[in-house]
Amino acid sequence: MSDIKQTEVIEDNKNESLKEKEEIKINEESNIEATAELNEGTGKRKKTVSSLDKFGSRILKDKSKVFEYNAWDNAEWDESQEEEAKEIVKKQKLNPVDEEMKKKYDSNANEYWNEFYTKNTNKFFKDRHWLRTEFPELFKIQGNEPFKIFEIGCGAGNTVFPILEESKNPNLFIYAADFSKVAVNIVKNNPNFDEKNCKAFVYDITADDIPEYIEPHSLDICICIFVLSALNPNKWENACNNLQKMLKPGGYVLFRDYGRYDLAQLRFKKDRYLDTNFYVRGDGTQVYFFTTDEIKNIFEKYFELEQNSVDRRLIINRSRKLKMYRVWIQGKFKRKPLEDAE
């Protein structure tokens, strides 16, 4: 059995939603495997210096040793794997979502996210401590100069609170917004939430304008992690335009999202295909799977793309002898001088 077929999950549609979201959220944070090991028998995480040292550099050279670790970096596919992935996507196209349901998923997108956070509260969400490795600039904000960060799609606050916890700058301020009012309330009810250094509010990044709380070109960093993929592709331009309006010249978008032929894309069954590389999950939330060329086309007008790369990981379930190929796009986009982007 091929590696791709081995990772397919066979579930009835009625059970698909919860398992799908749980798996995606867990694997979404699978970078943690490189910075922490699970204590056997306890389920508690133990951070280790040695695993941090190996992060991003654990390359599988001997395939017979594939099950010795939980994760391998830079896991390139061979030609047969890529062809198999393309065949899976071709089959998905044969059973698309009907037009009426497409309209419903799009027009009620915020309600589907509200339902998701209502059902799951914060139980699927781990603090993104891997951010310090992927985006170290978030944890090097020192001195006393005012520094403003905006996280779009803040979810349960699993990015916001680690940054605030480790910040050495007393004048760091974070704006945290989400499409879902339920997610925003989870952030506000977190015991670590303090209005002195954080403002949480509902906002749609595809809106016609930027939030009233944020001055144009006033932000140092915008965090955009697994956000653009949740949008209908016809709204990407609006989202990018709002990001550029808020950032200072020289400010950054820190970006991470799903890549083409990621495990999450290939495991979709019938009646989940919305459009090319665009799907709906069992709970009604939508997801797109990008290439670096698409990201370049979205951002290059207003941003210098200092990083726009594919992050491939081979995630191992050693107890079940499963290989799961994850694909993400990671980027750092620097806001151009205003006159250069007009």
Automatic annotation (TrEMBL):
Which SUPFAM superfamilies does the record cross-reference, listed alphabetically? S-adenosyl-L-methionine-dependent methyltransferases
Ranges for domain Methyltransferase type: 151-252
Q: State the compartments where it is located.
A: Cytoplasm; Nucleus
Superkingdom as given in the UniProt entry: Eukaryota
Nucleus: present as a keyword of the record? yes
The UniProt record lists the EC number as 2.1.1.-
Give a GO biological-process term: tRNA C3-cytosine methylation
Keywords on record? Cytoplasm, Methyltransferase, Nucleus, Transferase, tRNA processing
| Molecular-function GO terms, alphabetical | tRNA (cytidine-3-)-methyltransferase activity
Which reactions does this protein catalyse? cytidine(32) in tRNA(Ser) + S-adenosyl-L-methionine = N(3)-methylcytidine(32) in tRNA(Ser) + S-adenosyl-L-homocysteine + H(+)
Q: Which Pfam families match?
A: Methyltransf_12
Matching entries from CDD domains are given as: AdoMet_MTases
- Is tRNA processing one of the keywords? yes
Cellular-component GO terms for this entry: cytoplasm; nucleus
Instruction: State the family it belongs to.
Output: Belongs to the methyltransferase superfamily. METL family.
Q: What does this gene product do?
A: S-adenosyl-L-methionine-dependent methyltransferase.
In Swiss-Prot or TrEMBL terms, this protein is called: tRNA N(3)-methylcytidine methyltransferase
